Amino acid sequence: MSPHFDLRPLLERVEAAAPVDAVTAVTAELASLSGATEVSFLIADFSGHALVRLGTATRAPDGSRVQGAEHAETLRLEGTVHEQVLRTQQAAVQAGDDAGVHVIVPVTDRGDAIGLLELVLPEPPGEQELADISAAGHALAYVVIANRRHTDLFEWGQRTTPFSLAAEIQRRLLPSAFTCEAGQFTLAGWLEPAATVGGDTFDYALDRDSLQVSITDAVGHEVGAALLATLLVGSLRNERRRGMDLGTQTRNANDAVAAHSAAGGSVTGQVVRVDLHSRRAQIVNAGHPFPLRLREGRVEEVELLIDLPFGIQAGTGYRLQHFPLEPGDRVVFVTDGMQERNAASLDVAATLAATSALHPREVVHELGQAVLRATGGVLRDDASVVCLDWYGGPPRARESDAGASRRLASGGAGSGAPSPGATSAGAASGSR
Length: 432
Fold this sequence. Notes:
- By secondary structure, this protein is an alpha+beta fold.
- It is globular and about 65 Å long.
- Strand 10 and strand 11 form a beta hairpin.
- The chain has helices spanning about 5-15, 20-35, 80-90, 125-145, 155-160, 165-175, 220-240, 245-260, 350-355, 360-375; strands spanning about 40-45, 50-55, 65, 70-75, 90-95, 100-110, 110-120, 180, 185-190, 200-205, 210-220, 265-275, 280-285, 290-295, 300, 320-325, 330-335, 385-390, 400, 405.
- It has 10 helices and 20 strands.
- The strands form 4 sheets. It has a 7-stranded antiparallel beta sheet, with helices on both faces.
């Protein structure tokens, strides 16, 4: 690759291509610039446990899914170099089975690991060439984010199992990125779905002054629960975007659920607002399980006053409670699927303590896997989790390298700095 590698020709080629050909345009340009014999994009599937190689070859690999000209080859993740690159967010260079050298770099935006870029080169890359390839992987993250708005190709590739109607509705309620790294915090969320959709959601939004996070759990299952969750999440987002304070947001969202849902419809939840300047946090607790906090090696519940679930009674006002938050804290918000009866053998607090050295994305994945192990893979209710690492300090720029935070944690939670990147479904939303 030229030492004067310029992203402009690559981006111009992308803009000239149709959205379904955007990734092909990137890989073709990289092959031309680097002399690679193969360039491919592997997107993380919605389960978080596999990668999917998208392509348009005339002959699809054995076992691939095919839809028209498109094919999607699912590759296991556990124990592979691909898992290592996603977890560490560090490029890997390996000798291949053939005569080529395999170079694998993250495709990541703001810490959200969308997938990987893999090249086969005739010889090992130099330091500058590897940096250029990593920059191309970072650029590809933006290409995917921009072009997925116009096509279902990426969603189709990531769906290694079919969605039900309820799952499709629930999918639309989740944030478009499951991870966000910033100067003051890192946040990650995950949802392990039950066999029948249970109405779980989580959401977050960041502005100049605050970070707002919510986790909710609608009563019931399937389409009814998904529609109930839609009422609450849609109302919370609308009130937030209108600039309402936390008390008004939750009061109006409660009234919306009470007015438009069937009798008996309700949603438990917590909504947290962190003021980034004062570094103080407030929380509303609408009948939801208490959060867990890891502080200085100890895990404990954050006990809260309990108000009615959303939708029970119109006109309900919700108490704004102080939420204790100190630099180095790791806070985990969960739904009751993490505590369901057939998961009784799961000690969430112990699992959280054992993951103290991990990045928040690894934490939410590990908790999700732990509940699956405890239930034998048979969840009776969705299990959602949001992990917030709070570093504190004033609002500030984030130090990053190719889309992932550059600073490494010396000991995970409590270190005051992010740990390396971790496996994630990235810009993909959903956990199926």
